[in-house]
Amino acid sequence: MRRRVSGIAAALAAALALGFCGTGATATAATGGNPDGGKAECAPGVPLGPDGERFYDPPSPLPEGDHGDLIWARRVQAPSGARACRILYLSTLSDGKPVAVSGIVAWPDRAAPDQGRNVVAWAHGTVGGPRMCAPSAVPNPAVDLVDYFTYQSPYGIDVGVPALTDLLAAGDVVVGTDYQGLGTPGVHQYVVGATESNNVLDSVRAARQIDLTHANDKAAVLGWSQGGGAALFVGQNVRSYTPETKLVGVAGLAPAADLGPEFEGLVLPGPTDATAPSHTAALRINVYRGFLAAYPELRAPDVLKPAGLEALQGDGVACIEHFSDVIQSNVGNVGQLDTLFQPLLEVPLAWHERFHENTQGYVSGVAPILVMQGTADTVVNPNSTTEYVKRACGFSQPVQYTKYQGATHQTIPFVAQTEYLSWIADRFAGRPAPSNC
């Protein structure tokens, strides 16, 4: 039996009353008091979280409860005709350790159909390692995707959800996790498949705990880059982790889904440009940092030279684009990226075993798959995506693979929008899934 939010609220009130929360949040703020007249309340019965940065500091010890239970929430600005909240909820790491994870949820502000609302879980792409890089932490996170690489973006990361307003107009609940270690404390376990898929699946549970969402048990996952890989792991892990969730489909935009072969040097090179090698180096260090956090048997000097160990510390300070710019300035511009890394052929087997373990497509998923990849992508190698699709096509689930000529890593969420919106709607409607394996 899963514990409902009332149990979390009682435990949270007790923890705060005893002064266990180091954020200075008051019991009134965190247990649903309304000093602002209720404007910040997410929904009736949902504990109200602290304002500002304190929202992301969970009570210590964590309240008892099941993974996916809400800890608290706070209302944020929403698109017209919708409501939205920041949320803090319980989840687990790959080793089963409980953690708090933040995110957002948005839903139509109108009467729900009798069968309830379907849930679309958004899994965002790489933003970096520091807590401050959490997409939900910006003032108004419930927006259509704001691309970092545009003159219109005031942010240091990509913010928002692709086609959020379209999904809300279709009547869906949309929930987006920040993943563990982004927003909340702890080192972000970047591309550790079990941790990321747990965080995504628990965000769906958390959305269901807000009664006003009227969320039902059907869900689809849409992910991009890091999140595309997380989405594919959701399809493999959902039955063992949240068996009550009826997963109807998984859609990956340029998914990071071929880690093992990439780190063994088995994949043909993909498109590149002047800054791509430095960006790839930043991503590689991000992978190492995430694995070092998840797997205590691994050692940083086995994969990083002294200059790389110095850069590893920076990965906990700077969001990904800042971090890659520093690498470009310090070593990329002078052709010294090799001073960061131990040669891949010298990386110990223990590391490669973990890379393989976190590579999708070696076991079957439980739902249809849509993969969308730009041919001009310099971040996720299109050849790696093709290798994942070959593996996935070896199982019984339908796999639709669409290549977008000339699309880049940053443009794929926009140029593929018509396809994934239609595909997700068809999965919720129960229509047969296409496959071009």
SSE class: alpha/beta
Largest sheet: 9 strands, mixed
Radius of gyration: 21 Å
Helix content bin: 25-40%
Mean pLDDT: 92
Tell me the series of helices and strands, N- to C-terminal. Answer: HHEEEEHEHEHEHHHHHEHEHH
Task: Name the beta content range.
Answer: 15-25%
Structure notes:
This protein is of the alpha/beta class. It contains 13 helices and nine strands. Strands 1-2-3-5-4-6-7-8-9 form a nine-stranded mixed sheet, with helices on both faces. Helix 5 links the parallel strand 6 and strand 7. The longest helix has 19 residues.
Please outline what is shown here.
The chain has 437 residues and is α/β, with parallel strands linked by helices.
List the helices and strands and how they pair.
Layout: H1 5-17, H2 27-30, E1 70-76, E2 82-92, E3 98-108, E4 117-123, H3 164-169, E5 173-177, H4 193-208, E6 215-224, H5 226-241, E7 246-253, H6 259-263, H7 276-294, H8 306-314, H9 320-332, H10 349-357, E8 369-374, H11 382-392, E9 399-404, H12 412-415, H13 417-429
